[in-house]
Amino acid sequence: MLLERIYDEDLSQASYFIGCQSQSVALVVDPRRDIQVYLDLAAHHGMTITAVTETHIHADFLSGTRELAAATGATAYVSGEGGEDWTYGFDAELLHNRDTIQLGNITVTARHTPGHTPEHLSYLVTDGAFTDEPGYYLTGDFVFSGDLGRPDLLDEAAGMEDTRFEGAKQLFASLKNAFLTLPDHVQVFPGHGAGSACGKALGALPSTTVGYERKFAWWATYLERDDEQGFIDELLDGQPDAHAYFARMKRQNKQGPAILGRRPTPGVVGVEELTRGLQDGTYALIDTRPVDQVHTGTVPGALSIPSLGKAATHIAWAFDPETDDAELVVLAEDAETATEYGDHFVRVGVDSLTGYVTSLDGLPTTVPAVVSPAHLEALRAEDATALLLDVRNRSEHADGTVPGAEQLSAGKVLFHQDDLPDREAGRLITFCQSGLRNSVAAAALRRAGYDVVELDGSYAAWSHWTAQQHDLATTGKDAR
């Protein structure tokens, strides 16, 4: 048996390639939408992908199940559990609790493990060449290394009300009936790692075991004592912000993402064409330079995506393809790099990247408004209507913020404009921890018509400056 983990650092998301080497057939679980990596793996191992499945209706990325099935002719399988409200809207084979997929000598058994979502399936894998007992467990967003899938995401992202309590109860039951009944040696391969918003304390380890989690996971003592209420209270406490784009992912994954097929390579866009397109709104530019370079000058209305490594996350914060029909042009050194950005973008359903430019030469530019920590109070005194906005997560905000700041995370600002003052009411002064998330959020807000001033260096720089002022006041010396 072959089992390979394909990990996307951008979205902290894992998919799995399971192959029967004797029959040269393979199954992919939870594929992302840019599917070339799976086709390459199959070719490398001389295998044919005959089945594709997923653990649940994802909220954090757009599923590649339909895309990969269409490209390979594989059978698509999805959950048939959870009731009518959780029925997929596209043709696929339905899997119910204890249904199996046979892959040569390998048996993959679906287990209904509700809690994170009502329809959630996990997959027990038995390598029939060695044993008739399962040795591997693909748990999706059910059990992570050191944590569990959050049950409040439907409330946070999908607009449902108080589903978190029933979800937490379902998680408790799923652990009792579909996880802790397994032998300790069973290896657990989760759907996410550290950095995902699908849990609050995910570990960075790529895998764990049933026995390790039984002994050391935070939830284990609650299960041991059969303390359901204590489990629910701790599980729901301190969950991170859910990004606003999660709601769109839920809808699109349920109905079935559009099949892209072979995507054209982005082409170079000329300066005159891009300038006209920026003026009439047919184009939007993605400035991919580091934040300090963006602050020296960028194209008016450009979006800031300062890192290829987080391009999917950040474009989903900054661009809504359901309301914005602009074609995206990315600042990239060549077509290959532009294509990489496109790969990241389609993982979150942003499919409109059509071209690239290699520099901003000849394009109109403007310098984004920035204020230093030393001049922040003077600016606020000068403009009493300005809103100081902390775009970090609510847990970061609760741990300490600039006095008077309100909180709305960078993943929500574009989609929660009703929570912001009218554009004519005054400017926004924004900050995150170091400035990177703030650059993404501030650029998106400027493109939406807001007057935005960024706090230079964000909260980290403000905290450092404040500490210096305190030391000067108490000792008369520069603490540096």
Write the layout of secondary structure elements.
Layout: E1 2-8, E2 13-20, E3 25-29, H1 36-45, E4 48-53, H2 65-72, E5 75-79, E6 93-95, E7 100-103, E8 106-112, E9 121-127, E10 136-140, E11 143-144, E12 147-148, H3 153-158, H4 163-178, E13 187-190, E14 208-209, H5 210-216, H6 220-225, H7 228-236, H8 245-255, E15 267-268, H9 271-280, E16 283-287, H10 291-294, E17 303-304, H11 311-318, E18 327-331, H12 335-346, E19 353-357, E20 369-371, H13 376-382, E21 387-390, H14 394-399, E22 406-407, E23 428-431, H15 436-447, E24 452-455, H16 458-475
Helix pairs in contact: 4-7, 11-12, 11-15
Verbal overview:
GO terms for molecular function: hydroxyacylglutathione hydrolase activity. Helices cover about 30% and strands about 20% of the residues. The protein folds into three domains: about 1-255, Ribonuclease Z/Hydroxyacylglutathione hydrolase-like (Metallo-beta-lactamase, Chain A, 4-Layer Sandwich), CATH 3.60.15; about 265-355, Oxidized Rhodanese, domain 1; about 370-470, 3-Layer(aba) Sandwich (Oxidized Rhodanese, domain 1). By secondary structure, the chain is an alpha/beta fold. The protein contains 16 helices and 24 strands. The longest helix is centred in the last third of the chain and has 18 residues, at about 460-475.
If you consult CATH, what is the topology of the largest domain? Metallo-beta-lactamase, Chain A
Oligomeric nature of the chains? single chain
Report the total helices: 16
What is the molecular shape?
A: globular
Going by helix content, strand content and strand pairing, the class is alpha/beta
Number of strands: 24
Largest sheet entry: 6 strands, mixed
CATH superfamily of the largest domain: Ribonuclease Z/Hydroxyacylglutathione hydrolase-like
Kindly give the count of domains. 3
Helix fraction? 25-40%
**Which architecture of the largest domain would the CATH scheme give at its second level?**
4-Layer Sandwich
Low-confidence stretches: none
Distance between the termini: 59 Å
- Average pLDDT over all residues: 94
Radius of gyration: 24 Å
CATH top-level class of the largest domain? Alpha Beta
Strand order of the largest sheet: 1-2-3-4-5-6
Strand content: 15-25%
Enzyme class: hydrolase
Keywords: Hydrolase, Metal-binding
Domain Rhodanese: 382-463
Organism: Brachybacterium fresconis
